[in-house]
C-alpha cells in the first residue's frame, strides 16, 4: 500500500471512444456540450474525436466542426486521434486540436491484422515514419500505447515478455530521435487483465524502463476493472485512460454482444481514488453530472455506477460521522 | 497476497434477493428453473425465497410452493429467510427448506428504524429470543450478519469499533447458549465500503474474534465491488454472499434510483477468483448460463458483466498461449 500514488491523472476518452463505437450519429451540439462540461470538472485531458474515414466511421465525420465549436477552457488538453497521415493532416488543420504525438503498437499479431490490416511487426516499423512526421511537425512524443497487452480474443494469452520487448524497442526508437519516451500505456483492449497480470506486467515494464511513466488503458469487459485499478494503484500507477459513464469499449471484446461493458468508468474510478485518500484534482459531483448527461445523450442505461447511485458526499454532509465512538 | 485463501465459498442470494426487490411477481416455474440450474453449477448454498408478509411482499407470497417444486440436488443447502416467528414457523413447515439459524444485527440505529421499525439496540436484544427459538428447534447457529457495517445513508460513516462490539456481543451470546459463533457476516448494505475500510474492519473483527470465520455481504452500488472483494481476498476472506447476474440490492441504497447496481455478481466474482488461481468448486460457464437465464426471466439488462461478454475459456481453448516466448 505504501507504493500508492498521492495523485492520479485520468485521461478522458468518452467523447471519442464512446460515440465512435455507437451505431448512431449523435447531434454535434450534444457532443460539444459534453466536452465542455467535462472540461469544467478538473479533467486536464479530453480525447474529443478522431480523424478517420467518414465513410467507415460516419459517427466521427464531423470532427472538424466538433473541435471548432468547443469553447476552450485554459489548461485543458483537447486531444484528437488519427490512424494515418491523412488523419494527422486533418487534425493539424483543425482549430482547437491539441496535437500530441502518440505511437501505437500491437502485442497481438492476430489483432493487428483484424484491427489494422497489417502484422504487428509491420505496425511497429510504421512507427519510424510517425517519428519522422512528428519531428517535422515539431511535436515531441507524448506516449506510446500497446494494444492487447494482456490477452487477445484472437491469439489468447499474451506473454508479458513480448510487451516488455515492445517497450524497450519503443524507448530505443525515441532515443534514436534524441528523445525519451515519457509515457507507456498498457491497453487491455479486450478485457483480459486481472489484478495479478496487472501487477506482473507493470512490474516487468517498470523494471525494464524505470524512468518511463506507466499508464493503463483498461476496459471493464469482464467486471474486473475496479480490481485491476486497485492493483495498479498499489503498484504506484498514477495514469489511467477512462470514459465518463463507462462509455466505449472494443467492438472485438465480447462474443459479439453489443451490451458488453466498455472502458473503466471515470467517475467510479475517481470515487475509488478519493475513498482511498488519493487526489485527482477532479470535482466528483460535477463529473457524475457529466455521466448523467452522457446517458441522456446516448439514450439508454450506461454501465457507470455513480450516475445511478450517487456518491456518498450528500449523505456525509447531511449526517457527519460521530467523532467519539 | 500470501494471505489469499485457496478456496472461496459463494453463497448465492439471487433467487431471494433478486426477485424480492422487483416490483413484479415472476412466474413460479421460472424461479424454480433458476434455482435448479444454480444447484447444478457447484454452488452449495442457495437462498431460495423468504417467508415474509405476502401483503407487504407479494413477490414472495408463493415461497411454500417454490420450495415444494424444487427437485433437490444432494449436497446443496436450500435456504430460506424469515424476519419474525411467524415466518420461521412457515419455513419449518415447508418441505425442502434447509433451516439454518441466523442472527441479524444493525450497525446503524437510523437504518434499523427505517428497515425494521425498531432501534438497533432493540434488534440486538431480540436475538436472545431467536437463540431460544433455535435451541428449541435443535438448530445450532450458522451465522450472524451485521447490516450497514461500513456506512449508512441515514447515519453516515459507521465507526468500526461499533461493529467489533456487536461481534463480541454476538459471540458472547452464543457462548451463553453453549455454542460458538461459526461465521460473522459484514454487510455493506448501502454500498459504503472501499478496499481500505474492508481491510480495516476485517482486520479489527478478526483480531477481536480470531476463531470466527468472516463473511462479506457486499453490494456493487458504487462500482467498487470487485475492488472490495480483491481487498478481502488478500485479507484471507473466503466467504461471500453474492447474486447471479448481479441481481438484488437494497431499496434504500441509492438516491431512489431503481437502476442502481445490486449485490456483487456471483459469476463475475467467481471469474475473479479463478483468474487469481483461487478455487471455488463452481463451473463458471454453467453459472454464466444461469445469469443469462436470470436476465431472460427479469426481462431487462442486468448488471453482471460475463453474461454479456462471456468468459475467457472459449478464447483460451481455441488459441492456447504459445508456451515458448
TrEMBL record, chains A, B:
It comes from the Bacteria. Keywords: Lyase, Metal-binding. GO terms for biological process: ketone body biosynthetic process; L-leucine catabolic process. One of its GO terms (molecular function) is metal ion binding. Residues 8-288 form the Pyruvate carboxyltransferase domain. PANTHER family: HYDROXYMETHYLGLUTARYL-COA LYASE (PTHR42738:SF7). Belongs to the HMG-CoA lyase family. This is Hydroxymethylglutaryl-CoA lyase. It comes from Caldovatus sediminis. The lineage of its organism: Bacteria, Pseudomonadati, Pseudomonadota, Alphaproteobacteria, Acetobacterales.
Amino acid at each position: 500500500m505504501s507504493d500508492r500514488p498521492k495523485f492520479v491523472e485520468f485521461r478522458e476518452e468518452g467523447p471519442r471512444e464512446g460515440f465512435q463505437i455507437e451505431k448512431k450519429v449523435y447531434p454535434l451540439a450534444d457532443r460539444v456540450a459534453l466536452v465542455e462540461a467535462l472540461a469544467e470538472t478538473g479533467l486536464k485531458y479530453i480525447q474529443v474525436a478522431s480523424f478517420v474515414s467518414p465513410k467507415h466511421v460516419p459517427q466521427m465525420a464531423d470532427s472538424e466542426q466538433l473541435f471548432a465549436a468547443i469553447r476552450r477552457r485554459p489548461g485543458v488538453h483537447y486531444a484528437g486521434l488519427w490512424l494515418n497521415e491523412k488523419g494527422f493532416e486533418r487534425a493539424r488543420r483543425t482549430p482547437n486540436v491539441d496535437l500530441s504525438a502518440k505511437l501505437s503498437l500491437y502485442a497481438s499479431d492476430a489483432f493487428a491484422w483484424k484491427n489494422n490490416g497489417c502484422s504487428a511487426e509491420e505496425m511497429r516499423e510504421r512507427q519510424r515514419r510517425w517519428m519522422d512526421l512528428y519531428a517535422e511537425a515539431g511535436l515531441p512524443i507524448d506516449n506510446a500505447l500497446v494494444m492487447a497487452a494482456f490477452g487477445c480474443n484472437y491469439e489468447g494469452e499474451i506473454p508479458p515478455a513480448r510487451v516488455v520487448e515492445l517497450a524497450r524497442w519503443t524507448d530505443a526508437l525515441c532515443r534514436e530521435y534524441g528523445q525519451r519516451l515519457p509515457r507507456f500505456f498498457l491497453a487491455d483492449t479486450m478485457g483480459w487483465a486481472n489484478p495479478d497480470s496487472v501487477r506482473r506486467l507493470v512490474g516487468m515494464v517498470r523494471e525494464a524502463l524505470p524512468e518511463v511513466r506507466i499508464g493503463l488503458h483498461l476496459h471493464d469487459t469482464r467486471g474486473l476493472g475496479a480490481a485491476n485499478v486497485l492493483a495498479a494503484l498499489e503498484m504506484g500507477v498514477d495514469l489511467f485512460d477512462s470514459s465518463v459513464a463507462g462509455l466505449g469499449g472494443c467492438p472485438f471484446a465480447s462474443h459479439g454482444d453489443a451490451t458488453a461493458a466498455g472502458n473503466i468508468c471515470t467517475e467510479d474510478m475517481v470515487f475509488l481514488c478519493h475513498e482511498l485518500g488519493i487526489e485527482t484534482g477532479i470535482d466528483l459531483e460535477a463529473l457524475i453530472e457529466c455521466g448523467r448527461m452522457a446517458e441522456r445523450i446516448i439514450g439508454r442505461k450506461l454501465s457507470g455506477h455513480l450516475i445511478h447511485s450517487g456518491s456518498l458526499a450528500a449523505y456525509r454532509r447531511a449526517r457527519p460521522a460521530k467523532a467519539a465512538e
